[in-house]
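[stage:ingest] chain + small molecule (protoporphyrin IX containing FE)
[stage:ingest] validated
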Amino acid sequence: ALSPAAAEEEPDGEALVNALNGVFGDHKMRASHAKGHCITGSFTPAEEAPSLSEAAIFSVPSSVIGRFSIGGGNPKASDAAKGARGLAFRLTAGDGDSADFVTLSVPMFFARTPAQVVGFLEARFPGEGGKPNPEKIKAFADANPETTHQGAWIASHPVPASYASTNYWAIHAYTLTNAEDTTTTVKLKLLPKAGEVGLTDEEAAAKSADFYSEELRSRLANAPAEFELVAIIGEESDPTDDPTARWPEEERQSVPLGTLEIGSLEDDATCDATMFDPTNLPKGIAGPDKDQIFPARTPAYAVSFSKRAN
Ligand code: HEM
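[stage:predict] done
[stage:export] tokens:
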């Protein structure tokens, strides 16, 4: 018989991937962020970075492979539609230390727990006529108000004009540890050197579904796309267990950690051969202890990776 504890167990990687497939279909591609572009580049740490973290990635230059993507499991999603963009990247430092960051163009996630991820997605499963039932979506939102923050943020912000003209957030709280064993709780944010550039609704409506491809190709032919990685320093009142909750980052100190320079497009096969894993972090940087989403990601990514043909 099921013990009460087992009945309350959080969904595993398989259940999370099944819920994504239930909304987007099973395309034998990434169950989320199916559409994207592989890129390569470099990361140069800022002078201040070693004062926060002893990780080699924050003291010596790294090579980078990464991938820009459109959130969701639809491989034909339009680049001109509102939604989260992704930037995943792996830094490999001279000594072989590596770190993966898997970030979104939004400052919060849509769920606080894996069960909410499944509930949010199940409420959006296509029903009669292939469309989700708006009443189910509303009932879930009413019962789980924190799952509405991300959608509200997306609706009130423009579609980025380019993958290179938007901020990206790692969302979870991280702990940085320096060589003196001093720890600092931070959120990580990437700011585009090109500035934030968004499209008006009219401009977005005039764009083709794949306009980011050509935009990225011509941009990188001229110059690298650069981002500054900053650590936003947490204060006592800032939650570290809830990825749906923002910190008041405008009121927080931030410390530059380095410059991510994306130099060229890379064969997609290079990214498809691997899986960006947010828990792949070296000594000197760690993910949150009590955030339930952070540890749920790796098993879901592993299931998706094992099932995809690309
Ligand atoms: C429990 C919550 C989550 C689930 C179930 C989930 C699920 C997935 C899955 C199945 C993939 C495809 C992995 C692969 O096949 O390699 C993926 C990719 C991705 N996820 Fe998540 N995710 C979650 C949370 C997050 C969060 C919090 C962020 C951002 C902070 C995020 C950002 C991304 C990005 C950027 C990619 C694309 C990686 C690539 O380009 O290869 N996800 N996610």
